[in-house]
Amino acid sequence: MSGLVLDGVSAAYRDTTVLHEVRLTVSRGELLVVLGPSGAGKSTVLRVVAGLEPVTAGRVHIAGRDVTEARPGRRNVSMVFQSYALFPHLTVVENIAFGLEVRDTPRGEARQRARAAAETVGCAGLLDRRPGQLSGGERQRVALARALVREPDVFLLDEPLSNLDLALRAEMRAELRALHDRIGATMVHVTHDQTEALVLADRIAVLRDGRVEQVGTPDEIWRTPASTFVARFVGSPAMNLLPADGPLRPGGEAPTLPDEPLEIGFRPEAVILDAAEGTPATVDRVEVIGEDAYAYLTLSAGQPVVARVPAVRRPERGATVRLDVRWADTHLFHVASGRRCDP
Amino acid sequence: MRGRTRGPSPLPERAARLWRTLGAAFVILVFVPPLLLLVAGSLTEPGLPPAPTPQLVPDPLSTTGYERALDLGGLLRASLNSVLVAVVAVPLSVLVASLAGFALARLAPRVTAVVVAASLVALMVPATALFVPRFAIFRFLGLTDTLVPLIAPALLGTSPLYVLVYYLAFRALPAELYDACLVEDLSPLRTWWRVGLPLVRPVTAGLTALTFVLTWSNFLDPLIYVYDRNLFTLPLALRSLSLLDPTNFPVFLAGAVIATVPALVVFALAQRRFLHHGD
Amino acid sequence: MLTPYLVGLLVLVLLPALVTLGMAFTDYDLLRPPSWAGLDNFTALVDDPIFRVALLNSVVFALVAVPLRVLLALGLALLLHRRAPGVGTARTVALLPTAVPEIAYGLLWLWLFNPLYGPINQLLRVGGEHGLTALGRTPPQWLTDPTSARAGIILMSLFTVGETFVVLLAARRALPRDVYEMAAVEDATGWDVFRRITLPLMAPVLALLAVRDAVASLHFTFVPAFVVTDGGPPPYATTYLSLFVYQTGFEYLRYGYAAAATLVMMLLTLAAVLVQWRLIRRYRRFYQL
């Protein structure tokens, strides 16, 4: 049974359509990450599910119920906001119990469950503080506890890690995943951070300009990107794209290519430098990040290519190198549509 | 430049502070005397010939002015009326203003724009330009010579300005807080009460004080609507006291002190909120 | 949630404004039902010497007192915008007269201005003999001489600039500090800083406050004229529009006529609002707000 279904949902802000017939199905207990650049409509997806934005077309089903017309409070969803939206005038325990108390759960029981939820996310030591006295990570935990306590049908998380510093973000990412595995809740998590998406998700939905570009497991998204957009958005530095009939001929067994303009994509780590016979390129600059180095190259025909090499074997700036890729490491895309081509 | 060390020589900064303090002293010297004189005048023995020189401490010091003011002017009764009006009008006014401000912050932008524009216009119209038609309306409703017209401005939040101040305060709260309330199924009224109001408490405190000062000092409305001596509020009773014997200054100055003290006390308590914030 | 306020706005402001419009064209004394008078009230107003004096008085007051009030408030704001010992107290003190109930404030000045008992003239007589000042002149007969009476009411109004002061104080403190540090680096003198930086930056606020104060002056001249000078000294030296409307309506029971005068007052307000609107638009364009 599905936890959440978006059936051809469109939404508009003023006169601009921001979601175009989005179709998504999230199974019960699944963690779906909605990934996309800013302005792609990621947050709108969450807000439509929560009922904070109206749909202009399509239906929303939560736990088998059509909630398209239901108001936010009647959808049994909970939301962790980007800014956490903790109530500054309430203590932590009051914040967590808020949703229960306004729904007339007896005070004692509400506090009891709030404490349990705080225990689950590891903020039980903060119960009597106010949000103003908490660090970013602590606020994050309180916001999670507040979302947990009502045991909703769907959790909606709107870039909850984006306000944390790098180290804390990695830590909270792992905890969030562990929390999901522990409570087995249906979650929709929005982010623009591809690493976060790859680490957290059961499945990822890549969003572009209000349309779903691809839905798949992190492996599928990484290994078989459905379009040049997904290919370049996931992975850093982005995947190299070159015309298939261009200067670079990959080595190995070539597939039979259809007779239309194609692009070859390959990730920086697929590039082989110092190939005996390869395409010549000049090294524009080299970035060293610890053990790895990224070499930014220009082919003789002018196209840029990025290559990842071990730092100890990095080329000099201005040097001429020969580079090669294997067919097995490449992806093919139709130039006209940008969609993947599997010959 | 507070809290910062500036440059190698602290001397100019020190001199500047001294000048500023001197300026402050000058301001105090100009603005305090009228109020001190008010108190001094009220403590003068009534009926004495004019003193040849101004006296900050009257000789002899006398409270006769206060006794006569209370006896002759019915100031006690009037104070009671004033308190009655304030007790009803001030909470009502703050309630109306905060509800309206909250609604404006949450309604569709177009509705808000219209109401805000109307409020700004209402703010510009001088009160004296409305007393004739307002009087006609209240007379038509049969409400003249009651305290109702004195409480009625509470429906405007006493001044549309206060509604606008609440509107800005509620609008300044993060939108996600309101979203969170929607997800928790709070009605607008409960959102206002449980989340909105607690978060703008300083605004409420300041506006309550200002509303009190305005209501307490209201002279025009009682002047126009109230003729029954038993319904006189303090400002109106003060006026009739001064008409009783226009040369008996200590008596009506004493009355003026009685009317001024509550307003000044409340105002002094509240002024920190809008005068010194950010210092 | 908006309903009570909308009712208030409607019944206490919009409806009265409409009623004024209607009443201005009638004869109405509250006893008999109003009778249509057409433009009679307005032609009478044009010929009414008292009305003309009142209109002139109000305009002159606005032209003289409003600039003085705004300048005074600006001076206070500039003097008191930075911290130093005593500054906090001075800010509070500068506001206190504004918080005194109008009627009490009026009565206070009624006494202060009294030629015989009043402390002002007592002070002026210090050092003089036989009731003359030290320079051998007669002290001003504040409430009986037309010029002194008008000056007196302006003087009264100068102490109640609290609201304008608060706004200007906030505006001055909102000015960016780096601009002033830049000026200090350029070694600009105080006067240059004021003329070339502070004044231009605060000009929009000052202009808006001046217009607002001009409109408000139609209102706040009422109590002083009513309590302190009673519109006098004769003939009508301090009868302002507000007092004229009050007396016409509530003392002579000519409500239609009073409404016509009110309408003139509202038209003045409208003109001021239009000026204000144009100012806002101009500054908006200028500062790209």
From TrEMBL, chain A:
Keywords for this protein: ATP-binding, Nucleotide-binding, Sugar transport, Transport
Every ABC transporter domain range: 4-234
Classification via PROSITE patterns: ABC_TRANSPORTER_1, ABC_TRANSPORTER_2
Record-linked Pfam families: ABC_tran, TOBE_2
Family matches, as SMART domains: AAA (SM00382)
Gene Ontology CC terms, in alphabetical order: ATP-binding cassette (ABC) transporter complex, substrate-binding subunit-containing
An MF annotation (GO) of this entry: ATP binding
PANTHER family: MALTODEXTRIN IMPORT ATP-BINDING PROTEIN MSMX, OSMOPROTECTIVE COMPOUNDS UPTAKE ATP-BINDING PROTEIN GGTA
Protein name: Multiple sugar transport system ATP-binding protein/lactose/L-arabinose transport system ATP-binding protein
Automatic annotation (TrEMBL), chain B:
Membrane topology of this protein: Multi-pass membrane protein
Top-level taxon of the source organism: Bacteria
ABC transmembrane type-1 domain location: 79-270
Keyword Zinc: no
UniProt keyword Aminoacyl-tRNA synthetase, yes or no: no
Xref: InterPro entries: MetI-like, MetI-like_sf
Pfam family, one: BPD_transp_1
Residues passing through the membrane, by range: 21-43, 83-104, 111-135, 147-169, 199-219, 249-270
Subcellular location field: Cell membrane
Subcellular location, principal: membrane
A Gene Ontology cellular-component term: plasma membrane
Family stated for the protein in its record: Belongs to the binding-protein-dependent transport system permease family.
Protein name: Multiple sugar transport system permease protein
TrEMBL record, chain C:
Presence of the UniProt keyword Transmembrane in the record: yes
GO BP of this protein: transmembrane transport
Alphabetically ordered keywords of this record: Cell membrane, Membrane, Sugar transport, Transmembrane, Transmembrane helix, Transport
GO terms for cellular component: plasma membrane
Any single Pfam family the record assigns to this protein: BPD_transp_1
Compartment(s) where it occurs, according to its Swiss-Prot or TrEMBL record: Cell membrane
Family that this chain belongs to: Belongs to the binding-protein-dependent transport system permease family.
Name of the protein: Multiple sugar transport system permease protein
